[in-house]
């Protein structure tokens, strides 16, 4: 098992690794096996593009939990990151950092039901 911290949002999580020694040797050769290492979390891993629907997180009330669409992305030419302009349900745009956004996922009840299985599993 490996323990990771997302360098974008600071989320802490663990990953089940079948061969930790090899995994650390390939990715973090100068770090002891079992040490905490950086790794993008599930919410920060996907790239965001204009038109994507996103959920606002880690920002605070009243924005947390709102869903909006990315209207514009302004990237820092020095490579320090980007600002995402998100259109909120009230029609206003807000400038937010990547750590405040995650790609919207459909709720399980929005998905079509699975077909029934017959017989034994």
Keywords:
121 residues; mainly beta; SH3 type barrels; 2 domains; 5-stranded antiparallel β-sheet; 3-stranded mixed β-sheet; 1 helix; 8 strands
Estimate nothing, just give the exact number of structural domains.
2
Spatial separation of the terminal alpha carbons = 30 Å
Indicate the CATH class of the largest domain: Mainly Beta
**Count of β-strands:** 8
Mean pLDDT: 87
- Shape designation: globular
Structural class: mainly beta
Secondary-structure arrangement, i.e. CATH architecture of the largest domain: Roll
Q: Please list the strands of the largest sheet in the order they lie side by side.
A: 7-6-5-4-8
What is the CATH topology of the largest domain?
Answer: SH3 type barrels
As a whole number of angstroms, the C-alpha radius of gyration is: 19 Å
Total helical segments = 1
The ordered string of helix (H) and strand (E) elements is EEHEEEEEE
Q: What percent of residues are in strands? A: 25-35%
Low-confidence stretches: none
Percent helix range: under 10%
Main beta sheet, described? 5 strands, antiparallel
């Amino acid at each position: 098992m490996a323990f990771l911290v997302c360098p974008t949002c600071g989320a802490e999580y663990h990953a089940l690794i079948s061969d930790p020694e090899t995994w650390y040797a390939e990715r973090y050769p100068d770090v002891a096996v079992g040490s905490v290492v950086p790794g993008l979390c599930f919410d920060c891993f996907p790239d965001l593009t204009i038109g994507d629907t996103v959920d606002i997180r880690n920002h605070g009330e009243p924005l947390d939990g709102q869903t909006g669409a990315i209207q514009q992305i302004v990237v820092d030419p020095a490579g320090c990151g980007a600002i995402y302009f998100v259109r909120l349900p009230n029609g206003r745009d807000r400038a937010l950092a990547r750590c405040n956004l995650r790609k919207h996922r459909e709720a399980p009840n929005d998905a079509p039901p699975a077909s029934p299985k017959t017989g034994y599993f």
